[in-house]
Write a structure and sequence with these properties.
By secondary structure, this protein is of the alpha/beta class. It has five helices and eleven strands. The strands form two sheets. Strands 1, 2, 3, 4, 6, 7, 8, 9 and 10 form a nine-stranded mixed beta sheet that branches. β2, α2 and β3 form a beta-alpha-beta unit. It is globular and about 45 Å long. The N and C termini lie far apart (about 35 Å). The mean pLDDT is about 95.
Length: about 220
């Protein structure tokens, strides 16, 4: 299994600051470093597709990780980034983590099925402050995802999703013009594909949103 950390966005909400380089714990490790340390032993390769102007910054940090592959890429959507990265890999299965996220409590890295037949979503109980900001999922008693909505206020589903494993069957549902991979998963569900949920006991933070990053700092640095 290969990992994909899509980092080719413009970070407009953070005034152009690379979100994955934000510090996230008491040792001031960046979000990216934390993900890399957790992925090192469970993935064959870790692909970090990113914009050309960010490559010198990332290399200057000297992560010293042999299976990290930094790939220069200019794309307009995460879906486009994922499609181009999958084409570079010889793997049949992938673990996708958004590099500007952080997990408190249980971690999803080892809970997700690396041999999923189609797709396995890591899901967290959504907090009230996150309503309308994340993708939400409806899960049945068999832990199958039966519906997904994206950033829909007052939707009311119990869980949001924030990471996933998938195999190449998902590729045919990825539209490069759609904003993120959740749309491809939804396309698959609508076509009758089985998507399973792994509920993670903890908190999920999308640090690309300034208010959520401040909330994370209060949780990890200011206590």
């Amino acid at each position: 299994m290969d990992a994909i950390l899509p980092a080719a966005g413009l970070a407009k909400r953070m005034r152009g600051i690379p979100k994955f380089l934000l510090p996230a714990d008491k040792e001031y490790n960046t979000l990216l470093e934390i993900h890399l340390s957790n992925l090192a032993a469970i993935c064959n390769n870790i692909y970090l597709p990113t914009r050309p102007e960010l490559v010198p910054i990332i290399k200057s940090l000297d992560f010293n990780q042999e299976n990290l592959i930094i790939t220069e890429m200019v794309t307009t959507t995460m879906c486009e980034t994922v499609l181009k990265t999958v084409d570079l890999s010889e793997s049949e299965s992938f673990l996708l983590i958004m590099p500007d996220t952080f997990f408190v409590g249980q971690k999803p890295y080892n809970q997700l099925d690396s041999n999923t037949d189609f797709c396995n979503l890591a899901c967290w109980e959504i907090r009230d402050s996150q309503r309308g900001k994340l993708g939400e999922v409806k899960i049945n008693q068999e832990n199958s995802v039966v519906d997904m909505v994206d950033k829909k206020p007052d939707n009311g589903y119990k869980y949001s999703w924030g990471a996933l494993t998938f195999n190449k069957k998902l590729v045919k549902y990825i539209n490069a013009d759609e904003p993120h991979i959740g749309y491809a998963v939804k396309n698959g569900i609508d076509a009758g594909e089985k998507v399973f949920a792994s509920v993670v006991d903890g908190k999920y933070y999308d640090c690309g949103t300034p208010s959520e990053y401040v909330e994370l700092l209060e949780e990890t640095l200011l206590k």
